Amino acid sequence: MAAMLKTLFSSSIRADVLSLLLNSPEEQFYIREIAELVRKNPSGVKRELDNLEQMGIVISDRVANLKYFRANKESPLFSELKNLITKSLGLPGALKAVLRASGAKTGFLYGPYAEGDSVETVDLFVIGAISSLTKELKDIERRFDKGINCTMMDEDEYNLKKKKRDANLRKILSGKRIKLIGRP
To answer: Which CATH architecture has domain 103-181?
Structure first.
């Protein structure tokens, strides 16, 4: 077991790949997609995916000429690794991984949590995400025992509100924020 743990956390690429896959266990990704989401070299990502597959932590499926990878929820290490990743990344890290996997263009925390206050509910602003993000956010709420008040808009709506100098949007953008991905 100790040798497996040493092997498991021997690379930053592996940690990023694990974070992405374990925080989005229902999703499957192909190598270049993972490399783009974690902003790492595709050859390094492939090497780490192959290693994780040998350990039984991820599984793959071939569809046409693409090999898709996903977390192996049947692995005896799945829940422990997911908890370990969650604890090490904290709420912002878990949200960042889920937002990247969702295809969101921009995401940030704002409001009292971003100001440093201890709160029961955090405010999350997301631009360009898909609606399936809701399921992953519920999972994060449960893991961190915090509510997430999520405001989602597509890019066109965001740009229109920004151009019209929408009062609510201006208030959100003028306050302190914790950037997760992209730029508003």
So the answer is: 2-Layer Sandwich (3.30)
